[in-house]
Amino acid sequence: MTDHDVVVATLPTNDDDDGRLDQSVAEELVQRARAEGVDLVGPGGLLGDLTKQILETGLEVEMDEHLGYTKHDSAGRDGGNSRNGTRSKTVITEVGPVDVDVPRDRDSSFEPATVKKRQRRLHGVDSMVISLTAKGLTTGEVQAHLAETYGTDVSRETISKITDRVLDELADWQNRPLDRVYPVVFIDAIVVKIRDGQVANRPVYTAIGVTVDGKRDVLGLWIGTGGEGAKYWLQVLTEIKNRGVDDVCIVVCDGLKGLPESIEATWPRAVVQTCVLHLIRNTFRLASRRDWDAMAKDLRPVYTAINEADAKTLLDEFHDKWGDRYPAIRNLWSNAWSEFVPFLDYSPEIRRVIYSTNAIESLNARFRRATRARGHFPNEQAAMKCLYMVVRSLDPTGSGQERWMNRWKPALNAFAITFEGRLF
To answer: Core-most of 136, 172, 184, 290, by most CB within 10 Å?
Structure first.
């Protein structure tokens, strides 16, 4: 048995352009369900009966077009191809299993599109399975959810086959051409557990670019070996460059040793910017919680200073107050200073964009939620499939590649002035 996608016939809609179901139709369905004492969805549900009628109507219309005449028309008595009854099949839909009577013709040449031959699931069910998997549900949990909510029995093997369909899409996505220039690229890595002989922690390298149009684009995912390293980052950045990225204005990253050199080797004109929010968080991590509020008040003037000289003076005052109690904080800021100070050269509009790696941390949080329930993956491909479905689910349209940055136009103007001649 093979499975196919299908475009499902839609319910009657009003005349508005938004394509929403007519309110009167929806109210009539609810009233009818209450009057008959039936559920809207699930086995025997009202929407199941309605879906059956819509699918069968669509199939009959296709048969009319295939034969060239309508049902019971006298043209069917000329000895040519004609209807030959129906064949019943059960189709899994978003409202539960539905028994559909599929019309047949004598020549067996009818190839319906509404419900294709050997098709057992509608496209919406596949999309639902992928969406549930992207939210962190295992195949067993997806199976239980479909059975409990829709009364639909879908095997774990079938669920795995559905999610395997994204693998070809993943390969195309991972190798697609990228923009010539990105104003900002955020890079970071998380760790997942993969069984390769034995279970081991493997870094997953992620890069998000902010396009000239102000969209956040996940540039790709790469699974490395061992711990996160600048050497592997060089391979990742080189691959991004080979896919068409000639220039990046600012690369925002953590303080991994050797990473600035890898970035400079790939894009010599790129400015390496340490994530300011990471630096602040690490500062608090070295201090007692009871001092956080006071330290935050004293530290804020440092990263909001007008220039490097003022920031240095304010940081010295901060160390005078807190340095004896927390000497490690002095070393932390001293080591990160050269990657922190570029932040002070920019206007408030650019600072808001590069202040933190929240864009990539949000994605990493989704990754962790999707991988937590699984414990570990049997192989690298399974891990990549899971993570890509998370990326895919970010966009309601399913592409999962682009999301808008907030208040982008003022920032774009600031980037165009600061990096004159590089964006356009």
So the answer is: 184
Strands 271-274 and 402-404: unpaired
pLDDT of 215-248, one tens digit each?
889 999 999 988 888 999 999 999 999 999 999 9
Q: Residue 3 has what pLDDT?
A: 42
Sign of CA dihedral 236, 238, 243, 244: positive
Model confidence pLDDT, tens digit, residues 357-390: 777 888 888 898 888 878 889 999 989 988 998 8
In 3D space, the residue among 414, 66, 392, 411 whose CA is nearest the CA of residue 218 turns out to be 392
Kindly give the pairing relationship between strand 181-196 and strand 247-253: parallel
Long-range contacts of 83-87 (CB under 8 A, 24+ apart): none
- For residue 266, report the phi and psi dihedrals to the nearest 5 degrees: -90, -50
CB count, 10 Å around CB of 156? 12
- pLDDT reported for residue 15: 45
E-strand ranges in 18-70 read: none
What's the full length of the chain, in residues?
424
pLDDT digits (tens, 9 = 90+) for 99-143: 888 888 888 888 887 777 877 777 667 777 877 887 778 888 888
Per the model's pLDDT, the better-predicted residue between 75 and 17 turns out to be: 75
List CB contacts of 286: < 8 A, sequence separation 6 or more. Answer: 326, 328, 329, 332
Residue type, 189: A
- Please tell me the distance from the alpha carbon of residue 172 to that of residue 402, in angstroms, as a whole number: 16
CA–CA distance from 203 to each of 206, 218, 260, 383 (Å)? 10, 17, 19, 11
